[in-house]
Design goal:
heterotrimer; A mainly alpha; B mainly alpha; C mainly alpha; B: mainly alpha; two-stranded antiparallel sheet; 2 strands; globular; C: mainly alpha; 0% strand
Chain lengths: 167, 617, 115
C-alpha cells in the first residue's frame, strides 16, 4: 500500500519536473527541474531495491553531470529562448504529436506485458556488495573498457574546447 | 556435255578479282591496273565465247544453272548463282566484248588522267556488277547487281569529282535511280510474297517462279489485281535504269563523265539492263496486257520525245545521249508490243553502233578538246579514221539498209505495224527525226570549214573503233534472232519502204539545212521560236523536279521531320529525361534541411511504424 | 490498437504497483524527453532532454532487473550512467566550440549541411 502511494507520488513529481525541463523558457530552470526529476528517479530506484544505482544516480548524474551542465550554461551566458517563429511551427507540432504517438504505442505494447507482482523481497536487493560482486566478476571487461571510454572522453573534451593561443 | 562450272564462275568473278586487285595493289601503278582490268574482262569474254561454241555444237548445254546457297532462313531463301541460257549468254558476250573494246580504248583516252587506276578499278567493278545482273538466277541477286551498277555509275560519272557539274550529275543519276529502285524493290517483294500459298515455300528464284506463278494465278490464291500491280512496280526498275520518260532526266547530265564511261555504261550496257530485265521476266509481263500497254506507250513516248530534244542540242555527247534515250524507247516499245526477241536484237546492235558513236565522239574530244559542234568542223580532213567511224555509226543508227541497225529497227517497226497503228507512225516519225539529228551532227561537226584543229587519235583508240565499225556493219548477218529462238520469214517490204522513205527524208533535210546551207538554220529557228525554246528547256521537266524537291520535299516533309526531331525526340525524350531527373533531384534534396531535429523526426516516424507492427496483429 | 479497448484489461490505477506501472512511467518520461528534443531550439537544452531519455531507459532497466530477479539490469544502469557522463562531457565541449565558431546555439541556424 505504502509502495503504491510512494510510487504515484514520486512518479507525478517526476513527470511534472520532466515537463518543466521541456517547457521552461530559462535554461537554468530546465537544469534544476531535471535535478528534481533525477532525485525522484533515485527514490523510485530505492523502491525497486537498487540501492547502489540510486546512490550513483544522485552522486554522478545529479552531482556531476548536471553541475557540468550548469557550468557550461553559465559560461555561455544563455539568453531565455524567444518564442518560436512561424516558419518552424510545423516541425514543433509534428514533433510533439509524434512523441505523443510514440507514447501511445509504447503504452499499448507495455500494457500487455505486465507481471502480477514484482518478486518483492525474495529477490536479491541491489546492494553495493551484490552489484559490486557482479561488476568485478561477470562484467569485468565492460568495466575496464569504460575506463578507456572515460579517458577518451577527457582527451576529446580537452582537445575540442581548447582555445588556440596565437602562435 | 554440260558447260563446266569453273568456267561459268570465272565469267562472273574475274572482273571482281580484277577490281579487288587494283584496289589493293594497283593504286599508283597505271599499266598494272589497266592490264589487270583488260585481262580480266577478256577472260570473261573468252570464257563466254567458249560456252557459246559449246552451245552451238550441242544445244543441250543450255540452259545451265549453278547455285550456291547464300541465305537460307525458313521462308526466305536467297541463293547466289548463275543462270546461263541463250538470253544471258548473248548479253554476257555483248557486255564482255564491247566492254573489252572500251577498256582498251580507255588506255588511250585516259592516258593523262591522274586517277587512272581508280578509273579501271571502278570499271572492273562495274563489269562485275553488270554480269551479276545478267547471270543472276534470282531476283535478289539481280537487285544487288542493279544497285551496284547504280553505285558504279555514280562513281564513274563523278570521276572528275572536283568539277561541280560532274558531282551534281552523279548525284542526280543516283537519286533518280533510287526513286525508281524503291518501287522496283516493292515489286520484287510483292512477287515473293505471292510466290507460294505457304510462307515457307516463298522464293526469289526465276525458274521456280516462272514455273509456279501461272498456275497460282489461275488456281486462285493470287488475287486478280496483284499481278498487274507487281508488273507495274517491276517496270519501275527499267523506268529508272533505262531512263524512260519521265525518269530520263539523269542520262543527259551523265555525259559529264569520261567518254568511255558514256559509251560503256550509258549506251551499251547499264541502260540496257532494264530491257534485259523485261526480257528475263517477259513471261510475267506477257500475262498482264494492261501493263504491256503502259510499257509500250512509255517506250514510244520516250523514243519520240527524246528524238525531238536531240534536234536542238549543240553538245556532241548530248546529242548521242538523247539518241540513246530514243533507241531505248524503241526497245521498251518492242517489249511492250510483245516482241522480246526484237527488243534484245535491237539492244545488241544498238550496243555496237552506239558504243562506236560515243568512242568516235570521244576521239574528237580527245583530239580537239571541244564538245560544242558549232566550234567543230571539217574534221573529215584532219581526223579521217574517226570521221569514218562516226559516219558508219550514224548510218547504222538511222537504219541505213544493209547495216546492223536497219534489221533490228525494222523488226520493231514490223511489230508495231502489226499490233498498234499509232505507235507504228510514231516510230516511223522518230526514225526520220533520228536521221535528221545525226546527219545534222555529221554536217556541222565533220563537214564544212575547219574551226578547231584536231589531230588523229593514237592506234590504241582507233583499234576499238575499227572493231565496232565492223560489228555495226555485219551485225545484222550474225543470226542473233535465230540464236534467241525466233525464226522469221522474209522481209516486210512495206514497212521497210516507208521507214527508208522517212530516213531518206531526214537525211536530205539535214543536208539541205546544214550541208548545202540552202536555208539558214537560224531563220528556221527564228520561225519556230516557241517550240524551239520549249525543246531547249527540255520540256521544263528539270524545273518541275527541282520545284518538287525544294518545296514539297524539303519544306514540307523534311521540315516536318526536322520539327519532330527537334521537339519530340530531342526536346521531349532526350532533354525531357534530363529535366525530369534534375527536377526529381531538386525535389528530393529538400529532405536535407541540415537540422538535426528534422532527422530525429524522421527517425521517430520510423520507430513508431516499427512499434505499430506488433500492435496491428 | 489495444490501448483503446479499456474493457479488455482492468484499469491500472486500482491494482497494486506492478512492473507495467514502472514501464509506463518510463515510457512517459521517454516521450516527454523526445518532445523536448523536437521542441527546443537551444542545443544545450536538446542535450538535456537526451539526458532525460537516458533516465527513462535506466528506470526501465531497473524495473526489469527487479522483475526478473537478475541484477545484470542494474549493472547496465551503472554503465549507462558512466557512458552518459562521458557523452555529456564531449557533447558540451562541442557545444562550446559551436558557440565559439558560429556565434549561435540556435539549432535552426546550425544547418551547414543544408542542400
Amino acid at each position: 500500500m505504502a509502495e503504491t502511494v510512494f510510487f504515484y507520488l514520486f512518479t507525478t513529481l517526476m513527470v511534472l519536473s520532466a515537463l518543466s525541463v521541456v517547457f521552461s523558457r530559462r535554461p537554468i530552470y530546465s537544469v534544476l527541474s531535471l535535478l528534481i526529476a533525477m532525485f525522484c528517479l533515485a527514490a523510485l530506484f530505492v523502491m525497486l531495491g537498487a540501492y547502489l544505482v540510486a546512490a550513483l544516480q544522485v552522486l554522478l548524474y545529479a552531482g556531476a553531470v548536471l553541475v557540468l551542465f550548469l557550468f557550461v550554461i553559465m559560461l555561455l551566458n544563455l539568453e531565455p529562448e524567444a518564442s518560436a517563429r512561424m516558419r518552424v511551427f510545423t516541425l514543433r507540432t509534428t514533433g510533439t504529436l509524434a512523441a505523443l504517438l510514440l507514447f501511445f504505442a509504447l503504452f499499448g505494447i507495455l500494457r500487455g506485458a505486465g507481471q502480477p507482482t514484482p518478486p518483492g523481497a525474495q529477490a536479491t536487493p541491489g546492494t553495493v556488495e551484490s552489484v559490486g560482486r557482479l561488476i568485478f566478476t561477470t562484467y569485468l571487461l565492460p568495466f575496464e573498457l569504460t575506463s578507456f571510454l572515460i579517458l577518451a572522453a577527457i582527451i576529446g573534451a580537452v582537445t575540442l574546447a581548447k582555445q588556440h593561443s596565437n602562435e | 556435255m554440260v558447260a563446266p562450272p569453273l568456267l561459268c564462275w570465272t565469267i562472273l568473278l574475274a572482273p571482281f578479282c580484277a577490281a579487288l586487285l587494283i584496289l589493293l595493289a594497283g593504286v599508283h601503278r597505271k599499266r598494272f591496273s589497266a592490264a589487270v582490268a583488260i585481262a580480266a574482262l577478256l577472260t570473261s569474254f573468252l570464257a563466254a565465247g567458249w560456252v557459246f561454241l559449246q552451245a552451238l555444237r550441242d544445244p543441250a548445254v543450255l540452259p545451265c544453272e549453278l547455285s550456291v546457297s547464300w541465305i537460307s532462313l525458313p521462308g526466305f531463301t536467297v541463293p547466289f548463282g548463275i543462270l546461263m541460257d541463250r538470253l544471258s549468254l548473248l548479253m554476257t558476250l555483248v557486255v564482255a566484248g564491247v566492254g573489252s573494246a572500251i577498256f582498251i580504248y580507255s588506255i588511250g583516252y585516259m592516258a593523262e588522267d591522274h586517277a587512272y587506276s581508280r578509273f579501271f578499278g571502278v570499271l572492273s567493278l562495274f563489269a562485275f556488277s553488270m554480269l551479276t545482273i545478267v547471270l543472276a538466277n534470282n531476283w535478289i541477286q539481280l537487285f544487288i547487281g542493279w544497285e551496284l551498277v547504280g553505285c558504279c555509275s555514280y562513281l564513274l560519272i563523278g570521276h572528275w569529282y572536283a568539277k561541280p557539274a560532274a558531282a551534281e550529275a552523279g548525284k542526280k543519276a543516283f537519286m533518280v535511280n533510287r526513286v525508281a529502285d524503291f518501287a522496283f524493290l516493292l515489286g520484287i517483294l510483292a512477287l515473293w510474297s505471292v510466290s507460294s500459298p505457304i510462307a515457307a515455300g516463298r522464293t526469289f528464284h526465276f525458274q521456280t517462279l516462272q514455273a509456279r506463278l501461272p498456275e497460282l494465278a489461275r488456281a486462285g490464291p493470287v488475287p486478280v489485281t496483284m499481278l498487274p500491280l507487281i508488273g507495274l512496280l517491276l517496270f519501275c526498275g527499267p523506268l529508272g535504269k533505262s531512263a524512260q520518260f519521265p525518269l530520263h532526266v539523269w542520262l543527259p547530265d551523265a555525259m559529264e563523265g569520261p567518254t568511255p564511261v558514256s559509251a560503256l555504261i550509258h549506251a551499251a550496257t547499264m541502260v540496257a539492263a532494264g530491257v534485259y530485265l523485261l526480257c528475263r521476266s517477259f513471261w510475267l509481263f506477257a500475262s498482264v496486257p494492261s501493263v504491256m500497254t503502259i510499257i509500250m506507250w512509255v517506250g514510244g513516248a520516250t523514243a519520240f520525245l527524246s528524238a525531238c530534244l536531240a534536234l536542238v542540242e549543240i553538245d556532241l555527247k548530248r546529242i548521242l545521249a538523247y539518241s540513246t534515250l530514243s533507241q531505248l524507247g524503241y526497245m521498251v516499245m518492242a517489249l511492250g508490243l510483245g516482241g522480246s526477241v526484237a527488243g534484245m536484237y535491237h539492244l545488241t546492235t544498238h550496243a555496237f553502233f552506239k558504243a562506236l558513236l560515243f568512242l568516235a565522239a570521244g576521239s574528237v574530244i580527245h583530239g580537239t578538246h571541244e564538245q560544242d559542234i558549232r566550234k567543230l568542223g571539217g574534221l573529215v580532213r584532219s581526223m579521217p579514221w574517226t570521221s569514218a567511224a562516226f559516219g558508219i555509226g550514224g548510218l547504222a543508227l538511222c537504219g541505213f539498209p544493209g547495216l546492223a541497225g536497219f534489221f533490228s529497227k525494222d523488226e520493231i517497226l514490223v511489230l508495231a505495224y502489226e499490233r498498234n497503228a499509232p505507235l507504228y507512225w510514231l516510230g516511223t516519225i522518230t526514225a526520220g527525226l533520228t536521221a535528221f539529228y545525226i546527219a545534222r551532227a555529221w554536217f556541222v561537226a565533220f563537214m564544212g570549214r575547219e574551226h578547231a584543229h584536231g589531230h588523229e587519235s593514237p592506234p590504241v583508240m582507233i583499234g576499238p573503233l575499227v572493231l565496232l565499225a565492223a560489228l555495226s556493219i555485219v551485225g545484222g548477218y550474225l543470226g542473233i534472232p535465230r540464236f534467241l529462238g525466233e525464226l522469221h520469214g522474209e522481209l516486210h517490204w512495206e514497212v521497210a519502204g516507208i521507214s527508208l522513205a522517212a530516213v531518206a527524208g531526214g537525211l536530205v533535210l539535214a543536208w539541205l539545212l546544214y550541208g548545202k546551207r540552202l536555208v539558214s538554220p537560224a531563220k528556221v529557228v527564228h520561225a519556230l521560236a516557241l517550240p524551239y525554246s520549249f525543246l531547249q528547256r527540255r520540256y521544263y521537266i528539270d524545273e518541275i523536279y527541282s520545284w518538287y524537291v525544294a518545296t514539297i520535299q524539303q519544306k514540307i516533309i523534311a521540315g516536318l521531320c526536322a520539327w519532330v526531331e527537334r521537339n519530340v525526340i530531342i526536346g521531349f525524350a532526350v532533354n525531357g529525361t534530363a529535366r525530369l531527373t534534375r527536377g526529381m533531384g531538386q525535389v528530393i534534396r529538400l529532405c536535407q534541411t541540415g537540422r538535426v531535429q528534422t532527422y530525429v523526426l524522421a527517425f521517430l516516424i520510423g520507430i513508431i511504424w516499427l512499434l505499430s507492427v506488433p500492435l496491428r496483429r | 490498437m489495444t490501448v483503446f479497448a479499456p474493457c479488455c484489461q482492468p484499469p491500472l490505477g486500482l491494482i497494486p504497483v506492478t512492473l507495467t506501472h514502472y514501464l509506463i512511467a518510463s515510457a512517459l518520461l521517454f516521450a516527454i524527453g523526445l518532445a523536448g528534443i523536437m521542441t527546443r531550439r537551444n542545443v544545450l537544452m536538446i542535450l538535456l532532454c537526451i539526458e532525460l531519455m537516458f533516465n527513462a531507459a535506466n528506470l526501465a532497466f531497473v524495473a526489469y532487473a527487479r522483475a526478473l530477479g537478475d541484477l545484470g539490469g542494474q549493472v547496465v544502469v551503472f554503465f549507462i550512467i558512466t557512458v552518459a557522463a562521458a557523452e555529456v562531457t564531449v557533447g558540451l565541449a562541442i557545444a562550446v566550440l559551436l558557440a565559439r565558431q558560429l556565434k549561435t546555439l540556435n539549432a535552426d541556424e546550425v544547418s551547414l549541411l543544408k542542400w
